Amino acid sequence: MNPSLPHGLTLDQVRKYLDNRTQEFGGLGGAIARKDAAGLRMLAHRIKGNAALYGMPELGLCAARVVDAVDAGDWAAVSEKVDAMISRLAEERARFAST
Amino acid sequence: MNQQQFHIALVDDDAEFAERLVDYYTARKMKFTHFDRAETLLSELRGHVGGTPPYDLVLTDLAMPEMDGMEFTKKLKAIHPDLPVIVMTANSSVDAAIEAIEAGAADYIVKPPHFPHLTVVLQRNLHFSQIQRENLVLRRTIEDSQSLTGGIVAKSPTLLKAIELAKRVAPSDATVLITGESGTGKEVFARLIHRASNRAEQSFVAINCSAIPENLLESELFGHAKGSFTGAEFNRPGLFEEANGGTLFLDEIGDMPPQLQTKLLRVLQDRKIKRVGENTYRDVDVRIIAATLRNLGQEVKAKRFREDLFYRLNVIPIRLPSLRERKEDILPLAKYFLERFATRYSKPAQGFTREAAEWMLSHPWKGNVRELENAIERAAVVTMDTAIGLDDLRFEALDSAAETAAIASTTPSAESTAAGENAGTPAENSSAGLEASLLDEFVKESERAAAPPAEAPAADHSLIPTVLEGEPVTLADLELRYIREVLDRCEGVKDRAAKILGIDRKTLYRKLQAADAAEHASAEG
Q1: Do B218 and B263 contact (CB within 8 A), yes or no?
Q2: Hey, what CATH topology would domain B324-450 get?
Q3: Angstroms from B125 CA to nearest CA on chain A
Q4: Which CATH number fits domain B473-524: 2.130.10.130, 1.10.150.530, 1.10.10.60, 3.40.50.300?
Q5: What is the ipTM of this complex?
Q6: In chain B, which residues have their Cβ closer than 8 Å to the Cβ of A21?
Q7: For residue range B163-213, what is the model confidence (pLDDT) as tens digits?
Q8: Which residues from chain B sit within 8 angstroms of residue A17, using beta carbons?
Q9: Rounded CA separation A14/B504 (Å)
Q10: What distance in Å separates residue A27's CA from the closest CA in chain B?
Q11: pLDDT (tens digit, 9 = 90+) per residue, B248-306?
């Protein structure tokens, strides 16, 4: 499968973006355990704003749900939404790895 | 819209977002400079307070660590109220964006942006910003043209005396002969006399007698009848008729051919003209202002200029001093031109370095005010700094080996000597004290202009804040407000307002009537 890229975007840029997220997501478990609302929110807020520019609007939506859960202070929901975001990132990696 | 010329400052702590945006718009020839901290851009822009910022627009994120977009917008608008700011928010609620607009932002977009939508928002705001700048230049031009001494910067006693004489003779219909070197502002003076005369509402028509071939000059001045010569396919009035009721400015009168001198003399005596190829005379009511760089007295002695015409023209002689003779005006003129060109070209320069000011005072300015104006325009265009430096200014002067040698010495005393050598007059050799005091005063003033003020300066615009601070208005509404502002400035004189607006009087009436009708309908409805 050859996923379509937004105009002007290269596959190298997308892969670099995915690598950066993978590295960031490594610290998510610890942030949830510490209930680091500010740190989690900042990370998810950025992904919400930039994922679509790298051809991953679904990942942006997942991040938006994390922001909403953090804002609601519902840590069970935060954990669930963060898991969904991590899964989505894995799907995106697989999608772009196959090209 | 041509996007090539626009430069946008992007403020966002998200480097990956910025990278995508910059990539996208660089490919579309729109220049973006990325700042990951708002404070960095704010510091840069503080260096341009009171002048033109190096960016046409600022696009900023709202949610940022340290200084957020809201605080940044408020601080930015305090120092650059005219620089448009667009905020970006990733919040689905637009409350924060609305709050930012209340703080002075021009618009907002939701993150992630849809690029075509963002492009439209950017273009719309850039276009508006461009109109703002043009409006500023236009307002200054209007202010210049309406002030009696518009475009004349004078501190020197010699020029002030000439202005005083011009104002005194303006209300009469007496013929004026303005003499002075090339570039001293003879036409500017002629316009001053016209504006201050009872003919100010009528035409001011100018012709350069040396620029038109001898065989065409007569037809140009007096008009011609159809078939009077090859190519005369229609009856055509000349400049005397065009200036009827107003003022005719005959520049370089010393170059007028002898045959035409005779005809001009007759017009001055009889106030009648005859078109080429016609036998009938027509009455004309024209005030003549003539100008020349030649010594007409000597031209008379050399039999190149009619003595009787000379006396007819020389009723009120006004001699304009060269720039060398009025050194007090060099630096104020340089400042005046710099303000004008920095605004016109959106350049950061607001003042001059001490070396540049010293050089200006020592340069001979053989082309007078015109040469100075050209030098400042060029310097304003090429400089990248807030202060015009010596290298920006002496670009052209370096062509002359003698001048290169003269300006190689950088000490003030050496430069004063060089000035004396360049000008070669005893008066200038003794002017070192005057130059030093002018220089000190000017440099202090330049430094004050370049330094950021303790508090943000109050905005000095009338029309634009009206538009920006209130509800957005339609183009038609904006046009009407502008027309009314110009009318106010012309004290209700519609002819003058129409001229400034670049439309004819009928169009002005029609627009005002349409506006009145619409307002009545709205009031009744």
Answers
A1: yes
A2: Helicase, Ruva Protein; domain 3 (1.10.8)
A3: 22
A4: 1.10.10.60
A5: 0.84
A6: none
A7: 999 999 999 999 999 999 999 999 999 999 998 899 988 889 999 998 888
A8: 16
A9: 59
A10: 18
A11: 999 999 999 998 999 999 999 999 999 999 999 999 999 999 999 999 999 999 999 99
